[in-house]
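User: Just a sanity check before I run the rest of the batch. Below are the structure tokens for the first item. I only need the designed sequence back.
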């Protein structure tokens, strides 16, 4: 007998996904809806995790991926984390020049025996042998087997350090006690119900030796019964490179985290008990502020166990974790001298939105470009006036003659005359208009794109004002509610080297790891709508007229390098494109010029994870 929820999902999927009743056989009607959806989507298991955490439109996308053979096979997912014995033995034979000793920090509390056995085995199976496992046990008397088992293991392997705590003081104080056992020069954090990949310490040692990293984080994957049964691509947490703005939005770094002893000693206390539940988030925020070299290893090196009491399974089990994370982000703002109001996003408790306080409201010049027909310009200016709750701005346009019958009392219109007897490309037109603009900040806006929420300028300028932010871009939708722009990464195996993140996803989707719901770092901001300081434009000598078709990409990369900062995408500034296709196919000559100039940067880009596209996640 189908439950009410299953009946609802059955009806919803048929209506939303466009499945025809006549195509459903009688035998299908008799199935439970769970089984029906499982077969139709082609999944090995219809997992409510996907629906619960990513929404029904992500289920639809997963179905479409399978339909078009984009869904990863079990074999491909296995390749992400399972190595054969030959490769593991090869790692065991490697000798490192640096003497790196890892102290694995694991506080214990009433750990189920099965979990404890598997945890210690995962450490013993490390291909890098110079480690110690530091266990501080706060278990109660009813779980005395924890101490008995650990003492037995300690007697057989002197790399295992065990200390029974007098009483359970909570996760933060227990972890601090655990650290007192450590004698290594690098510390790795391992939860008592999780597992390390056998190559974890080996891969971390490699980047320490090669890059001198003092803070390292890796990818992870959730599992239930065992690591060999993982068949859901959404269980993999494949992360981008480091960004403090991403980290303020949510603790995407999570597991595995490794840091140097020297970095730890720069803090008066490691874990702060007032942040219990989100002590990791608070710690990572503080550590990354002081780290000299942060490195992300884009490999799955940590197994996060899902069970009924884990945070990954049910946030309500530890609701205080959300409150603690909220305060951890606020504490970082205070340390950095920033002011802002923090709130949760509507969809997720653990995604944070910051409205930074501005001590001034800078003058902004909106520089229009594109189709300058009177009708088009009148429409976009009307939209700007209607949807802009920001008083200090002007609109600049660059044409041969002033527009007819286009005049607004609400906003100054600045006409920049262009000589049509001389051929001008995009960069030259933009530079001429910007040179005569009065604003401290410039918004380059295509006339086919218009704002749809009143605070779009505030949401962008509060980031553009920051010293370490070069260019800011908004969320842009098409009029049929598909994503037009949600950030662009560089990808070497793409023809034009541009990877449009979440392109053509529905507005109803939240994106992989909810990436459509929070502020994050991006590589390229589209010229359809970008904001930057006029000072940066001036320092760069404007847009490069030689970088045809890549004017915006080139500007963004040069701007980032100039200030040694980042470009930002914000989902809280929303615009819409009336043009059905925002981007044009690049010519081979333009691609060649771009690659020649930026090949090294393209290869090293870490905005997108190398496997996102392969797995059909983004």
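Assistant: Here's the designed sequence for the first item:
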């Amino acid at each position: 007998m189908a439950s009410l929820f299953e009946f609802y999902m059955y009806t919803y999927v048929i209506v939303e996904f466009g499945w025809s009743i006549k195509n459903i056989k009688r035998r299908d009607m008799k199935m439970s809806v769970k089984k029906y959806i499982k077969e139709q989507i082609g999944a090995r298991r219809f997992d409510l995790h996907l629906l619960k955490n990513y929404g029904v439109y992500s289920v639809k996308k997963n179905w479409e991926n399978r339909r078009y053979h984009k869904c990863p096979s079990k074999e491909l997912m296995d390749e992400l984390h399972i190595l054969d014995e030959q490769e593991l033995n090869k790692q065991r034979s490697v000798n490192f020049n640096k003497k790196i000793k890892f102290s694995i920090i694991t506080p214990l509390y009433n750990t189920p025996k099965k979990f404890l056995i598997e945890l210690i085995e995962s450490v013993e199976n490390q291909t890098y042998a110079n480690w110690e496992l530091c266990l501080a046990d706060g278990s109660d008397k009813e779980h005395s087997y924890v101490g008995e088992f650990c003492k037995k293991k300690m007697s057989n392997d002197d790399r295992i350090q065990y200390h029974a705590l007098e009483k359970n003081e909570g996760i933060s104080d227990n972890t601090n006690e655990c650290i007192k056992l450590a004698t290594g020069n690098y510390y790795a954090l391992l939860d008592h119900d999780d597992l390390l990949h056998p190559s974890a310490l080996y891969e971390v040692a490699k980047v320490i030796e090669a890059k001198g990293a003092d803070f390292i984080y890796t990818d992870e994957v959730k599992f239930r019964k065992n690591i060999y049964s993982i068949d859901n691509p959404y269980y993999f947490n494949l992360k981008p490179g480091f960004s403090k703005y991403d980290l303020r939005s949510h603790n995407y770094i999570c597991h595995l985290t490794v840091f140097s002893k020297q970095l730890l000693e720069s803090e008066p206390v490691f874990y702060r008990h007032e942040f219990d539940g989100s002590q990791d988030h608070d710690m990572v925020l503080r550590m990354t502020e002081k780290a000299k070299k942060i490195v992300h290893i884009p490999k799955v090196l940590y197994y996060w166990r899902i069970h009924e009491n884990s945070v990954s399974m049910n946030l309500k089990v530890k609701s205080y974790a959300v409150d603690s994370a909220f305060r951890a982000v606020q504490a970082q703002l205070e340390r950095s001298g920033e002011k802002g109001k923090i709130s949760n996003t509507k969809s997720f408790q653990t995604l944070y939105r910051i409205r930074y306080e501005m001590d001034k409201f800078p003058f902004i010049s909106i520089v229009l470009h594109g189709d300058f027909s009177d009708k088009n310009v009148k429409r976009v200016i009307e939209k700007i006036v209607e949807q802009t709750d920001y008083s200090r701005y002007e609109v600049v346009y660059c044409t041969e003659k002033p527009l007819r019958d286009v005049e607004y009392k609400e906003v100054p219109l600045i006409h920049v005359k262009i000589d049509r007897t001389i051929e001008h490309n995009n960069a030259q037109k933009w530079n001429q208009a910007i040179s005569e603009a009065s604003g401290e900040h410039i918004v380059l806006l295509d006339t086919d794109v218009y704002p749809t929420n009143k605070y779009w300028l505030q949401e962008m300028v509060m980031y553009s004002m920051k010293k370490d932010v070069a260019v800011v871009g908004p969320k842009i939708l098409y009029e049929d509610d598909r994503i037009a722009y949600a950030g662009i990464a560089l990808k070497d195996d793409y023809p034009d080297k541009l990877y449009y993140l979440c392109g053509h996803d529905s507005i109803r989707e939240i994106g992989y790891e909810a990436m459509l719901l929070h502020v994050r770092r991006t590589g390229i901001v589209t010229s359809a709508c970008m904001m930057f300081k006029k000072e940066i434009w001036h320092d760069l000598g404007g847009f490069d007229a030689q970088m045809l078709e890549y004017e915006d990409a080139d500007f963004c990369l040069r701007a980032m390098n100039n200030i040694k900062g980042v470009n930002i995408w914000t989902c809280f500034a929303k615009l819409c494109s009336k043009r059905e296709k925002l981007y044009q196919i690049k010519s081979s000559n333009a691609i060649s010029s771009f690659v020649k100039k930026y090949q090294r940067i393209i290869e090293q880009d870490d905005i997108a994870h190398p496997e996102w596209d392969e797995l059909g996640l983004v």
